[in-house]
Amino acid sequence: MRSRPLGTSGLRLTELGLGASTLGNLGRAMTDEDAEALVRGAWDRGIRYFDTAPHYGLGLSERRLGAVLRQRPRDEYVISTKVGRLLEPHPRPTALDDDGFVVPGDVRRVWDFSRDGVRRSLDASLDRLGLDHVDTVYAHDPDQHSPDSGLRALEALAELRDQKVVRAIGVGTNAPHRVPGLFTSGLADVVMVAGRFTLLEQGALRSALEPARDAGVAIVVAGVFNSGLLSRPWPPDDALYEYGPAPAEMLSRARRIAEICRRHGTTLPAAAVELPLMHPAVTAVVLGARDSAQLDMNVDRHDQGVPAELWSDLVAAGLLEPAALS
Q: 306 lies in a domain?
């Protein structure tokens, strides 16, 4: 699979990365064997970038991902994890986690973007992964905590980068406009933008991609299917958008795009995967998968590409911002 440089960090990411939230039993449980098969399948299809977080299944995703990657040569892949949510014993354990992951609720997430919290979080992640280092660390959703959390975390992470503990640092968020100093502080190497640069929404052009290009910051795009609305060739009536029922306006817009894709001999999901990679600020697209079959489908969508004429027709129909392609 083709790879691209991650800014000036010296790292290269494959154009597709595996997002490992499903390894943490997001929405429903998977077995350890299925998790292992998914990671091995990604490797066999050429994916060499893997993204995880303590948040995903209260550490389960990191443990499962590390168990497979430890068997691979360490210099042949790039792995990223996140800081900002420490995992601590729950004072009132529950049968299940209450944040969307099918795991026991004996551990809780505690927001902490302080210097000490960042270091403690990374040390714990390395223990769960069973690795001596990760390549990239993101501050995870600092906009959901406080206005200054992102900058505080980046300052702490910059110390670790200077000490060569990590090679690249950044922020992962679906609201880059709510992280002051994200592109002007000179600290971030990369920003992961979730759900804001898709076939349906290009708001991140002004809030992230254009500032990133000006600042020399790389962009990794996640959430390209908008929680499912763009994941099928023809969006069904019960399609999800932002983890809830798709509004009628969004459903209609997605179907208009799907019809134009059909006329060009491609599909809505294939175009959804390809669009972010058209922009020069974007290094990689991170995709999750429920199983090996879904993974193969996503990689096939990437590999098949889409006709160049599709983009101009979407722009002409008022369904795509011209700046998304430049």
A: yes
